Predict the structure.
Amino acid sequence: MIIVHILLFWNRVLKEYLLRGYSIYQLLMHMESRIDHRLSEHDNLIKKFT
């Protein structure tokens, strides 16, 4: 019986870590996309002046 509780506990912990990891990954991907977009805009501005 105690083994079942331990397994359920670690299952919840694992799910929580996976969800947090996915959330952090999504945030990083969004930030990368924004940075790429801004760098592209800056490149276009530089090309206009050269």
Remarks:
- Helices lie at 2-49.
- The chain has a mean pLDDT of 94.
- The first helix runs from residue 2 to 49.
